[in-house]
Amino acid sequence: xxxxxxxxxxxxxxxxxxxxxxxxxxxxxxxHCVEVRNRFNCNQIVMIGxxxxxHYSSYHDxxxxxxxxxEELDRAIxxxxxxxxxxPKAKVCIGNHDAIVARKVFSSGLSNKWIKDxxxxxxxxxxxxxxxxxxxxxxxxxxxxxxxxxxxxxVREWQCSIVQGxxxxxxxxDWYCNKDKRLFAMQVGCGVDxxxxxxAYAKNFTKKYIVSCGVVLDKGTLPIVIPMHID
Length: 231
Fold this sequence. Notes:
The protein is of the alpha/beta class. The chain has six helices and eleven strands.
């Protein structure tokens, strides 16, 4: 039995699912994530944030030919049903797009007490929405406020291993060592369909979206990015 086979037997193998931006998720990404979970025997699930897009409700101009706010949310909820069936229990990082409605409530001067929890809105019981989660001393966070190789910068500043999403055009693992620790930064890519109208802002980007997910194996010590095959 090889080293990887031994790791698959560990009690703490984490599947990290990239940004979904539902209802604008890439077709086939769910099946990719399920296959990776099964291949690496992952028993913990982290969704790295921006589960929904909130295109119509964002602070930017919405596509006038796109879905209205209610229809977009209904489509997102429908698209997330098979995700919840496949991953009925998950730790979810709150992304900047997930937080748009709460931000608008705040800027309108209304109490946050008027806002339902995201798991209730999306009909995803047992999805634990928090700004960050810590598993085996690895911090999982969406990455709001970072750009480029922001995960690598955060490892040096926070002095802990970091896994994040947010940046659709980056997927990598960087290692950082000092005299006391060996730490890593993982950028997991995303599960977004860059052909959707909600992603039109990125059509002229030099870099294209990287559709991938990640695993963190061996009790938080072995990060791997796994790209999805795209025809």
